[in-house]
Amino acid sequence: MPRLMSSELPHIIAPERLARAGVCVQGQLQLRAMSRLAALLVDDRGTVSLTLAFSLAEHGAVRVSGDYATQLRLVCQRCLEPVTVSLADTIEVGIVFTEAARQLPGPVETLVLTEETMVLTDFIEDEILLGMPIAPKHEHQTAPAGCCADEQIAEPEQAEPNPFHVLKTLQLGDA
Question: pTM for the full model?
C-alpha cells in the first residue's frame, strides 16, 4: 500500500527516494506559483489539484503516475474576452537519470534529470502547458454576447474577374 502524503506539498522532491518509499502525493498547488503559466492567464487565482504516485520501474527508472485538474481563465481567441477552461489530464512519466536509459518501454513520456531532485511546481506547470488548448475559445452554450462562437466562418466570396485580364490575350505587334 503506497504511503500517502497529503499535507503541504513539498517544493522540491527527490523522485527516486519517493519511488523507493512507494509514496503517493496528493494536494493542491497555487497557479500564481507557476510564472510561465501565469503569464498566459487573465488572472492567476486558483489552484491545481493533483495526485502523483511514485514507483520504481524497469531500467532504473522512476515511474510517476497520476492526474491533475484545474480551471484556467484564458483569453478567448474569437472575442478576446475571458473564458474559463477546465483542464484535467493523466500523467504517465518515466524519470531517468542517464541519457542511456532514455527509451522506456510502453506509452510513457521520458524525463531525463541531471540531479536527484526536481521542483514539483515546475513539473506540474510543464504538464499543464502541454495540455492547454492552442486557441482557447468560448463554447457555443457559454459564449457571451459579441462572441462569434456560434457563427460559422464564411467562405470568401469569389472575386470579380480582373478587367485587365483581357490584355493578357492581346499580342504586341512589332513597333
Answer: 0.74
